[in-house]
Amino acid sequence: MAGPFREIPRASAASILAVVAWLVLGAVSVRAQPAKDPREAQPERPTVATHAYAVAPGIVELETGMQWQSLGPASAQLTGPVLVKVGLARRLQLDIAPGWAWLGPDGARHGGSADTAVGLKWQVAVGLPLLADVAVQSTVKLPTGDVGRGTGTGTTDLNLVFISSRQLGKVEVDVNFGYTRRSGDGTLAPTTATLWTVSTGFLVTGPLSWAAELFGYPGTRGPAGSRPIVAILTGPTFQPQRSVVLDAGLILNVEGFGATALYAGVTWNIGRLPGFNRSTPERTAGANPFPAHAFPR
User: Fold this and answer.
1) Taking a C-beta distance cutoff of 8 angstroms, is the pair 296, 5 a contact?
2) Is 293 exposed, middle or buried (0-12, 13-18, 19+ CB in 10 A)?
3) Of the candidates 117, 163, 177, 186, which lies 20 to 30 Å from 137 by C-alpha distance?
4) Whether 5 contacts 195, CB under 8 Å
5) Is the dihedral of CA 197, 76, 159, 13 positive or negative?
6) What is the pLDDT of residues 113-151, one digit of tens each?
């Protein structure tokens, strides 16, 4: 969303605050989580973070949207992330994330397909005393974008994200810590990078919920290195029916993010794959008013 993962050279005040906040939340007991309707949408967008849960076995869910940000007086960036989720087994999900990006009008860069990520998310534990519900997401990002057009990094990336989710009444809290290792010599993109996020969502009334997230990409080293980024994302989500969730909002700069970004998108639970065994046990999870997305945007 805000850019590639970044290597951590030092701990920022915001990242320390995020860790402390999560440790405090860890002292709160987690209530038992009821079974969830497999046809109810489980958005991982539009935030940087993702929740610890997988779509039900055989279910296909699509997420897509747009994000716009000014890069200067005569330049802007428009991105369109896409995520296709397929339930492979109980608590195991296949992720396929293509996308596109457009940069202009600087006369040199144009739009095109972005890099594509493919991976698995596996919920490995439920109801742990401190970490609550835990999942691990591993992905490979392929260099399908165009470096010259600014829609790709030109590297193959291995990403590993640790996910912890808990339900506190009607509020869900998701915490992610991510690490990325890239191919290349660091000229096009840093060879190592990290990510942290603290995301929450809560019900406002009826089909309307609200999201808030603090996320950070610690600074990176090397020829393509950059300073740390910290930002706050917030906005409403609206669920007109159980299988569809709409979202919109903005991302505000705390450190290094730049101008305010605007986003909007949709999550659609398409349904079950033909011929899939409907008797396969579904996963369990709490009401998830606003989960999020861990892939870089």
Assistant:
1) yes
2) buried
3) 186
4) yes
5) negative
6) 889 999 999 999 999 988 999 999 999 999 998 887 778
Phi first, then psi: give them for residue 89, nearest 5 degrees: -160, 175
Structure tokens at 68: 């716009």
List of domains in the chain: 13-27+37-270 (2.40.160.40)
Alpha carbon distance 147, 145 (integer Å)? 7
Q: What pTM, to 2 d.p., does this model score?
A: 0.81
Write out the H or E segment, with its range, that includes residue 163. Answer: strand 157-168
SS3 226: coil
Cβ atoms of residues 234 and 261 within 8 Å: no
Percent of the chain's residues with pLDDT above 70: 79
What pLDDT sits at residue 25? 45
The secondary structure of residue 16, as a DSSP letter, is H
3-state secondary structure (DSSP) of residue 116? strand
What are the φ/ψ torsions at residue 229 (nearest 5 degrees)?
-125, 130
Q: What is the CA radius of gyration of the chain?
A: 18
- The encoded tokens of residue 179 equal 């690490």
Q: Does residue 138 contact residue 147 with C-beta atoms inside 8 Å? A: no
79: tokens are: 């991105």
The 10s digit of each residue's pLDDT in 14-52 is 554 554 444 444 433 333 343 478 999 999 998 898 999
pLDDT at residue 99, rounded to an integer: 87
